[in-house]
Amino acid sequence: MKNSPFQFRVKVVGVFISLLALIIIAKLFYVQILKNDLYTSKADRQFSSYSGGIFDRGSIYFLKKDNSLVGAGSIETGFKIAINPSEVTDKDSIYNSLSQILKDLDYDSFVNKANKSDDPYEEIANHLSSEDADKINDLNLKGVSVYKENWRYYPNNSLASHVIGFLAYKGDDLLGQYGVERYYDDTLSKPKDEAYVNFFAEVFSDIKEKATKSEERGDLVLTIEPMVQLTLEEELKSTLEKWNADQAGGIIMNPMNGEIYAMAGLPDFDLNNFKDVSNVEVYRNPIVENVFEFGSVIKPLVMLSAIDKGVVTPETTYVDNGKVTIDKKEIFNFDKKGRGLVTMQDVLNQSLNTGMVFVESKLGHENFRNYMKSYGIGEKTGIDLPNETSGLIKNLESPRNIEYANAAFGQGIALTPIEAIRSFSLIANGGNLVVPHVVKQIKYSSGLSKTIEYPYTKTNLVKKESTDTLTTMLTKVFESYESGKYKFEHYSVATKTGTAQIANETSGGYYEDKHIHSFFGYFPAYDPKFIVFIYLKNPKGIKYASQTLIPPFTNITKFLLSYYNVPPDR
User: Fold this and answer.
1) Is pLDDT larger for residue 52 or for residue 546?
2) Residue 436: count of CB within 10 angstroms of its CB
3) Cβ neighbours of residue 495 under 8 Å, at least 6 residues apart?
4) pLDDT > 70: percent of the chain
5) Residue 440 C-alpha from the chain's centroid
6) Do the strands 260-266 and 247-253 form a parallel or antiparallel pair, or are they unpaired?
7) C-alpha closest to that of 519 among 350, 300, 297
């Protein structure tokens, strides 16, 4: 028997009710489970007309080697105290009552705020515990109110401060000012009106639009490994103090994919007390914002170019007289001594400037310039941190021979540290240009997550055979330091030091007594897991990077090999 029209209508209505119920259940799950924290925070605002400090923001996490997360930036919840000056009639009495609980409450500041009779709201204390808030509430003081508030908290204080950055007000808006707090501000921040969308409008809104909107908000999982970061910072701090240097910096990175395990610049600052910094220049990340003439660490890149072009080999020789004249200007070795007949391996072992002038002459100016530019020197790396600048390589466009000769041993061209380590990484990974980065994953509030992919920007810049040859040369360089004192018996380590004079930006030329020391190395040399680059600006009482930076580099290397249980390669 066929269904009657009435039965058909019942079925249609039943299906419609079932669909509506399913939508409502899904919406309740969205509100009560996925968006619980957000709606709880928004609800708090209904109880206080002056709780603008209540805000929500994505968290920031370090990523440990076992893939567990460690908090780097989070939201703390507590209370703040505010007064309505028009209702505060006995200022001294109220101050005395409050100061018994708020030990740091300044009398003059309190009175000044209490005298603003035309202002109905003045905050006098923040970041209070629930215990202190309850005590003040129990006093029942007229004109005094307790409000809930959230604030950004950095549990590791100064650790990776330049990478993380902080929040500060820009006008009426609380925004990320440095580090990933700024670069990923749109991802971390939450719309102020997110919780006030009409229920049915949100249920029936365009699904694609909602998905896109939700993907802009989330937590950051950094590539920074906290123990590696701590080790780098401790080594840099002890080295900075030992040699009374002006600045120090360093990066530890995976040369195969650009993941940065540690990045530090000294001096740094406490993220929870960033207002205590007297010189705002400290907030700048020197790894991405400052350029330096690093000197001899550039030599391997020039040697690689000449090897790849086929104009020299490790066994190629020249006669070193200790100096060479270019455009009527003399260029000396670091000690002004000649070695006689030497090989290209000796040039790197002993860091001979005259040898690099010879190499550049064999390579030719145009080839030299083209290779260096292909290595990303003179351009931004694309790192996911704000205010990145690029190196200065104008001298590679000069018609003068002397500029190319100087650039061949790293003088007269300037790079950012992040730009330098990216270029060194192509030696380690066989000729590919990586994108250095500090964020690995975004975890969205919807429960979804996205791992960020960073493909090579350039590949096969040189032949793999050329990088292998140079790696062998750099391994011999490391094992030549102090007659093999630092050699690892079961690991191959490829390195190069750099010492360069600091340019005098006031009068031109270079300081005779001020130097930049730098050092890079990667290991295990033929299948590298890590590349390390460290530098020291203006160390006192010492001249060469081999004296200041080999010990901290060796300490960092030992730690990484042990911490990651890297198998021996020989």
Assistant:
1) 546
2) 28
3) 474, 477, 478, 519, 520, 521, 522, 553
4) 88
5) 12
6) antiparallel
7) 297
CA 300 to chain centre: 26
Task: State the total domains in the chain.
Answer: 3
Whether 33 and 96 share a structural domain: no
Q: Write down the pLDDT at residue 62.
A: 98
Nearest to 229 by CA among 294, 297, 167, 164: 164
pLDDT tens readout for residues 87-136: 998 999 999 999 999 999 999 999 999 999 888 999 999 999 999 999 99
Q: Same domain, yes or no, for 520 and 423?
A: yes
| Torsional class of 72: left (φ above 0), alpha (ψ -120 to 50), beta (otherwise) | alpha
Question: pLDDT band at 29, cuts 50/70/90?
Answer: low
Beta strands in 184-225 (DSSP E): 218-222
Place of tokens 């610049």: 265
Between helix 130-139 and helix 91-99 the angle, nearest 10°, is 150
Give the chain's mean pLDDT.
Answer: 89
Q: Are 502 and 357 within one domain? A: yes
Beta strands in 132-237 (DSSP E): 144-153, 167-170, 173-176, 218-222
Residue 285 sits in the same domain as residue 415: yes
Would residue 305 count as lying in a domain? Answer: yes
For residues 202 and 205, what is the distance between their CA atoms, to the nearest angstrom?
Answer: 5
Host domain of residue 305 = 226-270+280-563
Residue 406 — very low, low, confident or very high, per pLDDT cuts 50/70/90?
A: very high
DSSP state, residue 452: P
